[in-house]
Specification:
The protein has 10 helices and 5 strands; from the N terminus they run αααββααβαββαααα. The protein is an alpha+beta fold and 254 residues long. It has 2 domains: 44-53 and 61-183, GAF domain (Beta-Lactamase, 2-Layer Sandwich); 203-250, Winged helix-like DNA-binding domain superfamily/Winged helix DNA-binding domain (Arc Repressor Mutant, subunit A). Strand 4 and strand 5 (147-156) form a beta hairpin. Helix 8 (189-218) crosses helix 10. The relative contact order is 0.12.
Length: 254
């Protein structure tokens, strides 16, 4: 899976942009600039990590991306790119076992090229992940202030040898996420993280309610309902959380 991107106003020369490498670098710079604007806008944490997951997924051309944060020693799921990954991230949250949990506890990258080779390590997780089409995982710790704040995890379909360049793209976004989480001073860092995590959890509940309401009204699956919700938010340049609240509280039906 070649990491990619779209061309844009990054200031690269026309010659560089004509090459595959130039287009990839341009796409990365454009996405980093756009993500920086999201951070600077003071967006809700749920929208920040939704945007991050979308950009990493697109740039790397992978199955999806998920984000979890540590609270009181437990890894808590915050956001994932699609419904299959939501399910897998929740399994790890409930059992506190899996590649994301291992990355959070060790503070090291957990790189899995063939998930079926790790049945002994995470038997329950592998048994659920492989049938859903997930066979390669790269989980990176989100580090800041000398500690692990959570994980950014990239999921691939099929066996995959993760390239250094792919991991570097994910790391850059993980570092930006860490800076966002540590925006407060050291004195109130824990308070801010606790509040932000609660905000993310509350947002997740609203999003789940909205997906259920859309699925019922449209007679579609939960996964399809999430795609409809996400598309409406993107098409109207609105946050995912704001759109979900409109569905639940204002009668919006995308």
């Amino acid at each position: 899976m070649d990491w990619k991107g779209t061309t844009g106003e990054s200031g690269m020369s026309d010659v560089a942009q004509d090459t595959g490498e130039g287009r990839r670098i341009t796409g990365l710079l454009d996405n980093l600039a756009a993500f920086a604007h999201v951070l600077a806008a003071g967006s809700p944490i749920a929208d920040v990590f939704h945007d991050l997951a979308e950009r990493v997924t697109h740039l790397l051309g992978v199955r999806g991306c998920g984000v979890s944060l540590l609270q009181a020693g437990r890894l808590t799921f915050v956001n994932a790119h699609n419904e299959d990954l939501v399910h897998l991230e929740r399994i790890q949250e409930e059992t506190q076992v899996g590649p994301c949990v291992s990355a959070a506890r060790s503070g090291e990258y957990v790189i899995v090229e063939n998930l079926t080779a790790h049945t002994d390590t995470w038997p329950d997780y592998v048994a659920r992940a492989v049938p859903s089409g997930i066979n390669a995982i790269a989980s990176l710790p989100i580090r800041g202030g000398g500690e692990v704040l959570g994980t950014l995890t990239v999921y691939g379909s099929g066996r995959h040898e993760w390239l250094h360049e792919e991991l570097e793209v994910a790391r850059v976004f993980a570092d930006l996420a860490a800076g966002y989480l540590l925006g407060a001073s050291k004195l109130d860092q824990q308070r801010r993280l606790a509040e932000q995590l609660q905000e993310a959890l509350d947002s997740r509940i609203v999003i789940e309610q909205a997906k259920g309401m859309i699925a019922a009204s449209r007679n579609v699956s939960i996964d399809e309902a999430f795609k409809i919700l996400r598309k409406h938010a993107n098409d109207h340049h609105a946050g995912l959380h704001v759109t979900a609240e409109a569905v639940v509280n204002l009668g919006l039906r995308p």
